[in-house]
Amino acid sequence: MKEIFRENRIYLITTILCLLLMLVIVIADTNIFYIVSNFITNAEYRENYGLAESTIKKDYNILKVIEEVFGKYLWEFDVMMIFGPNFIQILFPCLIVIAGFKFYRKYTTIFQFAIYRYKNYKSFIIKNINKEALKISLSLFSAFLIFFAFSIMVSKGNSMGASRTLFVDILGKSYVTNHMYTYYLLDGVVRFFLMPYIYAFFSCCIAIIAKNNKQVIFAPIIYYLGLSSVGYASQIAIGRKFLYLTPSTIMSSGAYDGFNSIILILTSSIPLFIGIFILWRKFKNGEV
């Protein structure tokens, strides 16, 4: 058990940090951090905080302040689901290279000895690539699921009618309204399970042809951020259709009207196809 924890602690840490980031973002919108910091450090603010309009002074402590702020804030499920994971799309390429880096370390060390133990070394490599890709994928998706449950609990069915557009062209706009929880869960499966798996798979495949760990780390990041920058810059000259080839489009928390969801998922899966091609070439040439 201790060995399993040590092997996977980076993924557990990733889950915790991503969850905390999503929670901090939505909690910060209540203005709680400003209120609490002033209540603790500013005596005048603390003295006047408990004065109601009737000038009747109420006795407050820090726990009552937090309870009151959270109680009065209108939590809205769809707003939380859109803005909570907002920063994950920025950190996304840095998170998925964890799988590639871990696979590279194994591939250049213990896996070199494993070639003499396994009859089907190709299957062994593919199995371990899938294992690392699934670990980071499950790590991000676990953080999302916990945040998803938290959002349901505190929002109590409240929503603002904020929109996401993935699958709306297939399911219809009414589906988002009538089946809000199911819709955002489906949206989360794509953004926090499927996409992390695709890019982690890509990162692990790069590890097979990389000459050093820097290439493993920076190649997926450059692909994601570089092509995203080119995509958003090119849409003005080429048109919005170029955003299909922009990796960050599907991870964006905003809406993108007029896009075909199936085509967007397929174009966002290009790194998966690149990874498969890398494996095919290496296996074909007998270099793995």
Describe the secondary-structure layout.
Blueprint (H helix, E strand, L loop, with lengths): L1 H27 L3 H10 L1 H7 L12 H11 L4 H7 L4 H20 L2 H5 L6 H35 L12 H4 L1 H6 L1 H30 L3 H26 L22 H8 L1 H15 L4
Count of alpha/pi helices: 14
| Low-confidence runs of at least 5 consecutive residues | none
Beta-strand share of residues: under 5%
How many structural domains does the protein architecture include? 2
| Helix percentage | over 70%
Report the C-alpha radius of gyration, rounded: 23 Å
Distance between the termini: 31 Å
User: What is the chain-wise order of helices and strands?
Assistant: HHHHHHHHHHHHHH
Total number of β-strand segments? 0
The main β sheet shows up as: none
The outline comes out as globular
Overall mean pLDDT: 87
Report the structural category.
mainly alpha
What does this 3D model show about the protein?
The chain is mainly α and 288 residues long. It has two domains: 10-26 and 75-284, no CATH class; 31-72, no CATH class. Helix content is 73%, strand content 0%. The protein has 14 helices and no strands. It has helices spanning 2-28, 32-41, 43-49, 62-72, 77-83, 88-107, 110-114, 121-155, 168-171, 173-178, 180-209, 213-238, 261-268, 270-284. The longest helix has 35 residues, at 121-155. It is globular, with a radius of gyration of 23 Å. The two termini are 31 Å apart.
